[in-house]
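Researcher: We're teaching a course module on how sequence relates to structure. For the next exercise, students receive a sequence and then see the predicted structure as tokens, so they can try to spot secondary structure elements on their own. Here is the exercise chain.
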Amino acid sequence: MTDWGQEFAAEARTERPDLTRLCLLLGAACDPLATQQDLDDADVELDRLAGLLPYGTRSPRAWAAALAGLLGGREGFHGVPADYERLESSLLHHVLRRRRGLPILLSVIWLEVARRAHAPVYGVALPGHFVVGLGDPLAPLEDQVLADPFAAGRELTARDAELLVAGATGETLDPSMLQPADPLDIVRRILNNIRAWAAPRPERSDLALIALDLQLLLPSHPARLRYERAELLVQRGEFLEGAAEMESYADVVAAVEPTIADRLRTRAKAARAMLN
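Model: And here is the predicted structure for the students to work with:
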């Protein structure tokens, strides 16, 4: 792991992880051409955008309109389906330059610009489509506003949110889906998106490994990620490291799943044999 990863790990373990910094560090780790200047420029750009918001804004709907007018209108932040095919759509420093990205990255920009302007803003991790909420998340739904940065800040009705959830999961909207997203959960979702982008591209297994390693640096993560890392290493031809990772995961699950642990050790032995 590079220094970017070390900085990422340190930030993730602070009492109040900074979403901007985490997103910029993970973007740098996934972009071999990224420099500290790129990260500094991105942070300055967020400050600049926040300074363009009007003073005296009060109601959630007024904040939503101001953000949509600035970010979706004047500054041109939005997304199109083709953005799902581009790695840059998941890297904050690129999204700030291109004004294009995935819903969650565009939402991060809204969140961080609004936060700097002291707006009552929070992220909403709807299944399949991240959006932004404005207002008090504990207030009745009619006193909050949902906006879709991917659609240049279009305000969402309750019916719109229901359709987004139904389209992604086939299920109905549950009130728990509207709860504010934690910065680390946002970062996990971004890393999952990067891994999903890399999965059908074997030539970018290096990127899948970077994203997986970053997930393992977060304060909490599923133990199964260790197994996924082992499998990825074997797929990349790194048989010894992959075998060692499998055996390590086998030790973790042995107490509760001894049969699975035995299979993992057999798989590790087979991985080592591939060197012969």
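Model: If you want an answer key for the exercise: Residues 3-183 form one domain. The CA atoms of residues 153 and 195 lie 27 Å apart.
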